[in-house]
Every structure is written in C-alpha cells, then in structure tokens.
Write a sequence for this structure.
C-alpha cells in the first residue's frame, strides 16, 4: 500500500478531522456541524495529511502567529498544531516529512521562527525546536493565605466587575495587546480565539461551559485586568470546600493582577484556588501575606521555539548589556544553520553571517531555547549541548541573552 503526504482538499476535511481525533484519543465521530465550524479557521494550503488508499492516517497544520520577543517587539512566526499520527502508522517517518515540508514553506514565507506546544518532550528537538517557555500551576490554600477575610474590593480606587462574553470580546483584545508589549513569550490572539474562549463559537466535540468572568477597572474606568474561572461547590460536614479554577488571568499592571487574585481568594465558600498555567516567576505567591499557602502542583516546559532566520530573530530582540559573540549554529535540517556574528548595543543589534572563528557552537535547538532568555548557555555547555571555543563565551551569551523576568506563553494552540 502506498502512502501519500500532501495538503488536503475541502472534501477531505472530515476524514482529516477523524484522523486527528484518533491521534488525540478522542472519539472518531465527526459531525457535519463540527466540520463546518472548524472549516472557518483552517487554511487548507497549510493543512497536511498522510493518506493510505484514500484514508487519512496522519495530520499536521500551521497558521500565522505573532510572538512577542525580549524588548516588546513582535515577529511573525509559524504556529504548528493538530499534529498526530494514527497508532497503526507510527515509526514510518510521516511526521518528519510533514514537518520538513511545513518548515521549508514557513522559511520561504519569511517567518522568523516556528512555535508549538509539545505534548511529548522527546519528539521536537531533532527538528530544531527548543523549550523556550515554562509554566507553573499553583494551588492556594485560601484559609492559610493570610488575606483579610473582610476584603470587599481594591483599595486603589479600582473595581472588580462580573461581565459577560460580549463585554470580554470588546475589551479583551485591547487589554491583551497591552500585555503583549510588556511580556516576552506571549502570542497573538485572533478574532476566532476570542469567539471560542467566550462561547460565541463552540464545537460539538468540546461543549462550552460558561465560566465566571471579571474585569479589574482602574479608578478611571479602564479595563486593566481580566480573569476567567470556573468553580466547584463542595461541602464536608456542612463546611464549604469549594475550588476556583483559573482558565485565564491577564493584567496590564501589578495592581490589576493583585486585585484579581485577591478577589478570587475572597469569594465566599472558596477554600482553594488553582492558578492555571503561570510563568514560573509569577508574582502570585508573593502577593500573599503567607506565600507558603501556595504550592506548585505543576511545573513543566510549555511553548517550544524553532528559529528559521537566525539573523532576523537575533536582531528583533533587545539585550541587557552591549557585547558581541560569534555563534556557530548547526541545523540538522539545513534551513537555518551557519556562523553568525551578533553585535548588541543599547539602541539595537545587528547579526550577519561571518567567516570569523566561532566562539560558541551549539545546535539550533539550543539557540532556540536560549532565544527568549529563559535557558542558560552555561547550562547547555555543562550538558554537552554547547561548546566554547573562546573561554568565557558561554558567560557572554548568558549576559547578552538571559532576561530579568522569565518568558510566559499563557495560551495553548
């Protein structure tokens, strides 16, 4: 039997979705309604399938995304999603063929990098991806947090208001755009993201359950924060033991963030708050009079990055200190490797191919992990993933690339 990998046609979308559901261990049932709703968000020319005798057995899709890099600027990236291989067709190189085709096209389009959320750690390093952001989930014991139980609202003149999905779709995008310029690692949210995450659109395979939604407004009435959360009503021996589970919390200022967490921790009958995926250095625990009331229940790699254009990527971000470094970058796919000289200054950076002797050599996956400032070149060297050709080159890389705050990607995609 012959295997064919290609972009799909509209008439093949149902079979493609069925294969994706199988790969993600969901029911293989695909309704006409599901197909129609998903069709509006899928670019067929960026949607690949592997077919055997007309049946789809592997799936792969990408879409346009903007990634905020260090310093607040954003770059166009190729976001990869819906990657599956049916259990009957594993270990045949299907993912490799689809990945290499998609990355080559992304480079031709001029995308600076590719991004994805890795479900399995071992897969994507060989394609040049590196874990560029991590996330932590805290569970907070409300009764031990030490907050004033009589709290009734922010003391800075701001307010907390419960709102509906219509209000979130109006104010949310502008709030998120303000967040994006202050936090590297954040990715863009398009109109359909807001529609799906406020219930205007929903899928039969993922029935919408209305959450609670609240704005923090400044004393001038501006929306500076948004929290979306669900609750569970549990009692033991006539005592409340409810939990608030945060789906999303974004804020344009520490004051807004503090007020929204204080609000959640003051809701009657709530004794536990699950934070959802936050940056590992989030301010949350230190907002509490007793930070020990918050314990980490999850800490894991999240968004992976793969640089496609090393000079443009390094020129797009900011640097903490001035300096220069010659990098020798190995790319097993032959798309982005080479020797590059980076010159960083306070007013910007330049990066170009060079024939100068290399000072630090590493694989593309290593440079991609370093790109948003979270990983350490010295640690990569200790792991055997980087090599110094000039003493102190790894320390120079860390001084240039590492950031005071850790990158954060709040969104699955």
């Amino acid at each position: 039997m012959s295997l064919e990998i290609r972009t799909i046609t509209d008439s093949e979308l149902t079979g493609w979705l069925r294969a994706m559901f199988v790969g993600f261990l969901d029911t293989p049932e695909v309704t006409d309604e599901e197909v129609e709703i998903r069709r509006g968000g899928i670019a067929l020319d960026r949607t690949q399938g592997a077919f055997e005798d007309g049946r789809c057995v592997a799936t792969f899709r990408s879409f346009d995304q903007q990634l905020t890099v260090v310093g607040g600027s954003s770059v166009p990236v190729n976001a990869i999603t819906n990657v599956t291989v049916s259990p009957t067709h594993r270990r045949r190189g299907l993912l490799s063929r689809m990945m290499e085709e998609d990355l080559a096209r992304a480079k031709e389009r001029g995308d600076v990098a590719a991004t994805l959320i890795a479900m399995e750690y071992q897969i994507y390093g060989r394609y040049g991806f590196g874990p560029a952001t991590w996330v932590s989930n805290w569970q907070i014991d409300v009764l031990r947090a030490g907050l004033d139980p009589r709290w009734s609202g922010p003391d800075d003149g701001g307010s907390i208001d419960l709102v509906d999905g219509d209000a979130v779709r109006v104010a949310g995008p502008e709030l998120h755009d303000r967040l994006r310029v202050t936090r590297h690692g954040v990715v863009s949210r398009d109109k359909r993201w807001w529609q799906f995450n406020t219930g205007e659109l929903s899928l039969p395979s993922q029935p919408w359950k209305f959450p609670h939604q609240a704005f923090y407004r400044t004393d001038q009435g501006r929306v500076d924060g948004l929290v979306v959360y669900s609750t569970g009503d549990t009692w033991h021996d006539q005592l409340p033991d409810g939990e608030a589970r945060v789906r999303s919390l974004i804020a344009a200022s520490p004051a807004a963030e503090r007020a929204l967490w204080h609000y959640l921790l003051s809701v009657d009958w709530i004794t536990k708050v699950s934070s959802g995926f936050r940056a590992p250095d989030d301010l949350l625990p230190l907002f509490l009079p007793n930070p020990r009331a918050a314990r980490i229940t999850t800490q894991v790699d999240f968004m992976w990055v793969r640089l496609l254009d090393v000079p443009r990527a390094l020129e797009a971000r900011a640097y903490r200190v001035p300096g220069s470094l010659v990098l020798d970058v190995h790319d097993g796919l032959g798309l982005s490797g080479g020797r590059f000289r980076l010159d960083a200054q306070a007013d910007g950076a330049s990066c170009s191919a060079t024939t100068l002797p290399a000072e630090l050599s590493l694989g593309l996956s290593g440079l991609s992990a370093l790109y948003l400032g979270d990983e350490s070149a010295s640690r990569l060297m200790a792991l055997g993933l980087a090599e110094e050709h000039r003493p102190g080159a790894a320390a120079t890389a860390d001084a240039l690339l590492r950031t005071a705050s850790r990158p954060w990607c709040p969104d699955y995609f």
The chain has a mean pLDDT of 97.
